[in-house]
Amino acid sequence: MPDPRINRTKKYPITEVLFIALCAMLAGAEDFVTFAAFGRAKEAWFRERLELQHGIPSHDTFRRVFALMDPKAFQDRFLTWVASLREMNDQLPHEEDVLAMDGKKLRHSFDTASGKSAIHMVSVWSSQAGLVLGQVKVDEKSNEIKAIPRLLDVLDIAGRLVTIDAMGCQKAIAAKIVAKGGGWVFGLKGNQGGMLEACTLFFEHALEQKFADVLCREYTTLEKDHGRIETRHYYLLDLPNGLAWGDERRLWCGLSSLGVVESTRQVGEKTSFERRYYITTLEAAPQGSAQRFARACRGHWGIENSVHWSLDISFNEDACRVRMGHAAENLATLRHICLNLLRKDATAKMGIRNRRLRAGWDMDYMEHILQRVLEI
Predict the structure, then answer these.
(1) What domain count does the chain have?
(2) Could you tell me if 137 and 329 are in contact, meaning their C-beta atoms sit under 8 angstroms apart?
(3) Does 264 score more than 50 pLDDT?
(4) Helix (H) or strand (E) holding 372
(5) Which of 313, 292, 302, 308 is CA-nearest to residue 355?
(6) Which end of the chain is more exposed for a tag (fewer CB within 10 A), N or C?
(7) What integer pLDDT is reported at residue 231 of this predicted model?
């Protein structure tokens, strides 16, 4: 990492600062004060691995480094590391991989005094590797639509399926994904009102006609858990080339099919029903296409369950009030590094929060987790 500090004021090499911060966050620390406290508590362990000519850095040093450090340079190194980790864990063909993209606001990263709003990050999750592959910050006074292409620029998506919710359902994003050799599944909501209305009418007419004039693949799943029964029925309908759909297929690069998910949820005596619409490059004709569409939908929900939920519950990300300089963005990258490391540990049969506790109690387990960093 390039060090942003002036040489005459540096006492602690940036590698030492980052290594201590990484270990501290793995062990449950969540801010600069606890980074320094963990370092002091485990100083003998750190001295066996680092020079520490001036001892453990203070919390002010951690704060200054993370505030000044170039977030793009930090993310570039994160991407290089995770790409190598991903290659080692590729066990399925690329076409089986779902890359889910979604945004998340760090709610307490705002600064009222300076007029700085809370930062918003867009992340991408690989369902195949079980890893966060990258993230970019959404610029202030902007939105996810402009951040998604920047993230696509640095990802290898060839042969993979990219899923994005309604916010990223844009023709330019579809064209960029196809140009890079990937496929896409986009959710439809009110922001694509005309497209959503056309898809709704097309599906309801086809359903009424029992799909007599359109190729449709179907697939059903049933889940039971803690008194909840949820049935999901997936439809993948081939869109014709003629009339209006021919124009849409030309405008939406790669558009091939309409996907529909009907969810029926029963909890006790209460039953709810929901229908969601998607457009996709997946073709309906091949056998198993509806199953692949189902995996894409479930894979996209994985970013909520495996990334956003874990960051909030296991890392208290939404409660973090760090806001100076680039510190909030750099800490978000550090959390993703830790989440990847903890998720790839197959030996501990416990949740992420408890793995963090164990890493703080047991330095042998800490070393085991850190082996994932050294594997590249």
Answers:
(1) 2
(2) yes
(3) yes
(4) helix 363-374
(5) 313
(6) C
(7) 95
Higher pLDDT, 80 or 26: 26
- CA angle, corner 253, sides to 184 and 140, nearest 5? 70
Give yes or no for a contact between 150 and 137, defined as CB atoms under 8 angstroms apart: no
Residue 183 belongs to a domain: yes
Quick check: 132 and 82 in contact, CB under 8 A?
Answer: yes
| One domain, residues 121 and 18 | no
One domain, residues 64 and 79? no
Residue with tokens 């203070």: 58
What the block records as the tokens of 183 is 């496929």
What pLDDT does residue 88 have?
57
Q: Please report the pLDDT score of residue 91 as a whole number.
A: 54
**207-212-218-224 Cα dihedral, nearest 10 degrees:** 40
Mean pLDDT of 213-221: 94
Q: Report residue 376's pLDDT band, with 50, 70 and 90 as the boundaries.
A: very low
- CATH, residue 172: 3.90.350.10
CB 89 within 8 A of CB 344: yes
> Does residue 348 or residue 362 have the better pLDDT?
362
Residue 165 lies in a domain: yes
Are residues 121 and 52 part of one domain? no
Range of the domain at 260: 73-313
Q: Which two tokens stand for residue 160?
A: 């993979």
Q: Is the pLDDT of residue 248 over 60?
A: yes
Residues 63 and 145 in one domain: no
**Are 237 and 284 contacting, i.e. CB atoms less than 8 angstroms apart?**
yes
User: Has residue 333 been placed in a domain?
Assistant: no
Q: By three-state DSSP, how is residue 316 classified?
A: coil
CB-based contact 129:83 (threshold 8 Å): no
For residue 335, what pLDDT is reported?
94
Cβ-count burial 313-334 (b if 16+ within 10 Å, e if not): ebbebbebebbebbbbbbbbbb
